[in-house]
Amino acid sequence: MLSSWDDYPVHQTAEPIRNVATSDRNFYDRYYFNLHGSSDDLMMIMGFGQYPNLGVQDAFAVVQRGGRHRVVRASRELGDRMDLTVGPFRIEVVKPLEKVRFILEETEHSLACDVLWEGSIPAFEEPRQYIRKHGRVLFDTIRFAQTGCWSGKLHVGGEDIDITPDRWWGTRDRSWGVRPVGEPEHPGIRGPEGQMTGMWNYSPMQFDDHTILYILNETNTGERPLEEAVRVWSDPAREPEWLGRPEYEHRLTSGTRMVERSKILFPNAPGGGFSVEAQPLTHAFVCVGTGYGMEQDWRHGMYQGKLVVQGLDMDQAEIAALGQYALVDHAARFEYDGKVGYGLHEHGFFGAFDKYGMGDPGNDAD
Q1: Which of 46, 107, 157, 243 could cross-link with 33 by S-S, CB 3.0 to 4.6 Å?
Q2: 149-191 confidence digits (pLDDT tens)
Q3: Domain limits for position 16
Q4: CATH classification at residue 173
Q5: Alpha-carbon torsion (221, 205, 148, 1), positive or negative
């Protein structure tokens, strides 16, 4: 059961707040947000995390606009866990499980915002992710997700943008538990084997009166460590509707690991199967410069010092060759049965995935 306290980063285990603590170095407690204009204008992704057993708290914001990849990131020593600030970043839980304010104050870097998130559906508890490799638990996490809209102000690259809820939509999640964070550990028996393998898809699709939440991690052998397909209604009086085992059809750009468009299928949905057409509008290489692990000198939970604030401004085309090998977040248009919605279409292909011609970790799609 979720409670209002589950909207605060005070968890100690991969369970709701009432459960016990762990001493695992990789325990984390994080916020994730994305913001888009239901168009190809721009995409912004924000994150904020605490790592109690590493003594670190950090945050980032990244915006893709006009071919530029702009990042502001900050890290500090963790003190009071109710202090939700890191340098110019601040989070305010205005109304737990419903409204959250995200602030990035102006610095010398060309990115700032003061935006309010308001959920369009009740916060929804997603399936627990649990992955054990060679005897060690690598992932043991729980998460709730929510679609919604934004209002406020955004400043990017010298431009001021009014953010209004009629078109500025997005997704947020709150996750906590154990997953690899901080300074890289020696892989030991895992050798070059990755932490997560195969294909990862995550698509929260927001429509006028409901949201479809689709999650899938499928390995190269066809196993599914994690999957979910559910329709959550904006009216909290209506029960969520599970849609059965999801399927997918992706079209990738030849020679890359980038998805051009997708069809997400729910053949066993109650009342009859249906499929959703997903068309990416714009994307951000969320793992470049933000701490998700592509840079060895800046990772989520990695100790940087008492307080460090940095900014990056890169050509998106120049980082594409690197960014495509990690998670890629697309703002996307979704359509089924005459209904049109918008949301996140996230994908990652880790290591070999023969279904799309990726025979080894260095191969790209046919």
Answers
A1: 46
A2: 999 999 999 999 999 999 999 999 999 999 999 998 888 888 8
A3: 4-184+196-356
A4: 2.40.370.10
A5: negative
